[in-house]
UniProtKB/TrEMBL annotation:
This is NADP oxidoreductase coenzyme F420-dependent family protein. The keyword Membrane does not apply. Residues 2-34 form the Pyrroline-5-carboxylate reductase catalytic N-terminal domain. Coiled coil: none annotated.
Amino acid sequence: MQDIVILCVRWEQAKQALAEISDWGGRILVDATNRPANEDAEGKTSSEIIASYAPGAGVIKALNTLVMNWMPDSSENDRKLVLFMSGDDKAAKQKLARVLDEAGFAPVDLGGLIESGRLQEFGAPLSGLHMNLVKRMNS
């Protein structure tokens, strides 16, 4: 079974946290970090930087655009909170999508890590966007 590691630390702590794992081969790394908007990254997305700290990992940008108090139990009203994800490893994204779906979320695959990952950066169009998928009722 493929490990899924969720990186959920302050941006300044990410490099050190990832250094704790020496062999990333085959693991899925979910980048839930947000780089400060005023930090110069020389045109790179935060996930490109994170990927450089974890060579061999299948990096997926996800779980970084949400505010925690948006995550109530939605089982009573058939609503699922939309979670965006971006990455280049299709198999890794499919596995994460299954996990998120089983956890009661509605995962939305935006595409590749760099291009669509930019949409999730702090201050970008999808950052902090609160969306729900509502199950349609059959009459």
